[in-house]
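Predict structure. Chain length: 183.
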Amino acid sequence: MKLMFASDIHGSLPATERVLALFAQSGARWLVLLGDVLNHGPRNALPEGYAPAQVAERLNEQASRIIAVRGNCDSEVDQMLLHFPITAPWQQLLLPERRVFLTHGHLFGPDDVPPLEEGDVLAYGHTHIPVAEKRGAIVHFNPGSVSIPKGGFAPSYGMLEENVLSVIALNDQRVIAQVSINP
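Prediction complete.
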């Protein structure tokens, strides 16, 4: 199964447009949103093209193909605009050989790992910093932020294809980080 991941859109319409264009080209079955979809939050500057209502409209066009979790900047009011559920603090995807635990990163994350088995994947956003690596027995994966990257990184998104998780630069498709999840 091919999956595309995006996190920390924070209401940026240009970032949303780019993600949706890449999603359409990717052949991915699902677009996984790891939280902070519409609002920028009090600690972030307004992202380029801040237009939360328009972001909601564009994402709603793909509602049946989106799996999402709630970020620390998401609220019940946001859910009123979106036609796919975003209020779950975590979800799990079951792959043939492992589990992918989806969360935003503010409740569960690299410093508070949920109970996972060897080889499982912890997929999170929140930090806006891309990660694709094995830490002990668990694979950590953060696609970075498509709108407000931090740590000197480019805006980025993630892909799972043929048991490889990749973080990819949004604008030039350069691979930033990559890890295999083969058993």
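Summary: The chain has one domain: 3-180.
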